[in-house]
Structure formats: structure tokens, C-alpha cells
Design a protein that fits this description.
Strand order of the largest sheet: 3-2-1-4-5-9-8
Number of helices: 9
Pfam family, one: Methyltransf_23
Largest sheet: 7 strands, mixed
CATH architecture: 3-Layer(aba) Sandwich
Protein name: Methyltransferase domain-containing protein
Keywords: Methyltransferase, Transferase
Distance between the termini: 38 Å
Structural class: alpha/beta
Radius of gyration: 17 Å
InterPro entries: SAM-dependent_MTases_sf (IPR029063)
Helix content: 25-40%
Order of helices and strands: HHEHEHHEEHEHHEEHEE
CATH class: Alpha Beta
Organism: Dyella choica
CATH topology: Rossmann fold
Number of domains: 1
CATH superfamily: Vaccinia Virus protein VP39
């Protein structure tokens, strides 16, 4: 288990993770209208939240881990004092144009149906949920026995879980889209096609109906 400080330094010092985070932030900021509020769901240590706030977006942060919250308060102390970043005890405690969930936050859920129902009460009509999730088709994981063991489950059911302490779940995009119905529709998936075999993370953009 990482402390907030350990996670923060690890994620910032990982070249691959920096590339993913930069892509995610650029896409989120492009989707947000000027001055629109955003919810950073599973905000971690506040890296994305700080970037959103710097671009003029009041950012609500929900983070269930006490260790992450503790470091978030340090990392975003100025923005919190100015109420550019606002900590909330529940995702339902805000109303926003967009929700971001970066670095596999949604992979910690076994079923997203209830989550999307709740987020439908948070996101304005026409708003969005943008999530980066672990890509179940990533061939870099084929060297692991758990990936090979679950390939049939992925093809048949579109979902499997890895037997570990965190019990991370992997989902085909269609399973997430189905759970989001009828409140959201899957508007964009990246990457697509053959690149699904080469990228560890996939980005899902779900539009509020």
C-alpha cells in the first residue's frame, strides 16, 4: 500500500504515466466549457484537480482513501484556501458539467450500474463522464498467467476480476456502456482497432442524455 506521498512521486516520475495523464487532462479541458465546474472522482493526490483549477474550473474532489486525501490537502493547499478546489464527502454533493475518473478508478468497481445512476444526478444534461480504464485487450499483459486464464471470460462475458488484494476488474467497453444506459451513451473510445492491443489504458467518453 502506497502512502499519498509515495504514490504522488511514483506517478509523477513515471514517463508512461505522465504521457497518459497529459493526454487525459488535455481531453478533459477541451470538453469543459469555459468556467464550467468539474468533479474529479477518485482524485488521488489532486494532480488533475490542480490542473483543472489552474484553467479556471472550480473542481470538486472526491477521494475515499485517507492517505490520498491527506496528501491532496498539502498539494492543493492554495487552491483549497481559495475554494478553487473543494473537497466533498460524496459525489452526490455537487452538480457539474463533467466528471473525470483517471488512472483506473472505475476498475475498482465490479458493476457500474449504480455508479452511473448516481452520476446522472451529478452531471448536467449534455455533460460528460471521462474515464481512463485499464485496457483488457492490452497484449503487454499476455505474459501474465492471470491474463491468459481470463481471456475466455473476456471474450464471452466482457468482464473479469484479478484475484488480488485490490481485486481489480477489467471490462470490455461495451460492458461499461451497457451499465451507463439509459443515463449516458458511449460517445468516444480511444484507442480503437489494432491500437487496443498496444495501449495499457483506454479512454471512454460517456455523454449525459
Amino acid at each position: 500500500m502506497h502512502s499519498g506521498a509515495q504514490y504522488h512521486q511514483f506517478i509523477l516520475n513515471s514517463p508512461r504515466d505522465r504521457v497518459v495523464r497529459n493526454r487525459f487532462q488535455r481531453l478533459a479541458l477541451k470538453l469543459l466549457p469555459e468556467g464550467a465546474d468539474v468533479l474529479d472522482f477518485g482524485a488521488g493526490t489532486g494532480i488533475d484537480a490542480k490542473a483543472f483549477a489552474a484553467k479556471g474550473h472550480r473542481t470538486f474532489v472526491y477521494e475515499p482513501s485517507a492517505a490520498m486525501r491527506e496528501y491532496l490537502v498539502q498539494h492543493c493547499s492554495d487552491e483549497i484556501a481559495l475554494e478553487k478546489i473543494i473537497q466533498i464527502p460524496s459525489p452526490l454533493a455537487c452538480k457539474v458539467q463533467g466528471v473525470t475518473a483517471n488512472f483506473a478508478v472505475l476498475n475498482h468497481f465490479e458493476d457500474h450500474t449504480l455508479l452511473f445512476e448516481e452520476l446522472s444526478r451529478v452531471v448536467h444534461p449534455g455533460g460528460f463522464v471521462l474515464a481512463s480504464m485499464l485496457n483488457p485487450y492490452y497484449l503487454g499483459d499476455a505474459r501474465y498467467a492471470w491474463w491468459r486464464k481470463n481471456l475466455v471470460n473476456l471474450l464471452r462475458r466482457g468482464h473479469y476480476a484479478i484475484a488480488s488484494e485490490s481485486r481489480i476488474h477489467r471490462f470490455a467497453p461495451r460492458i461499461v456502456a451497457r451499465a451507463a444506459t439509459p443515463h449516458f451513451r458511449l460517445e468516444r473510445l480511444a484507442p480503437r482497432g489494432l491500437r487496443l492491443a498496444t495501449d495499457l489504458y483506454m479512454f471512454l467518453l460517456l455523454r449525459r442524455l
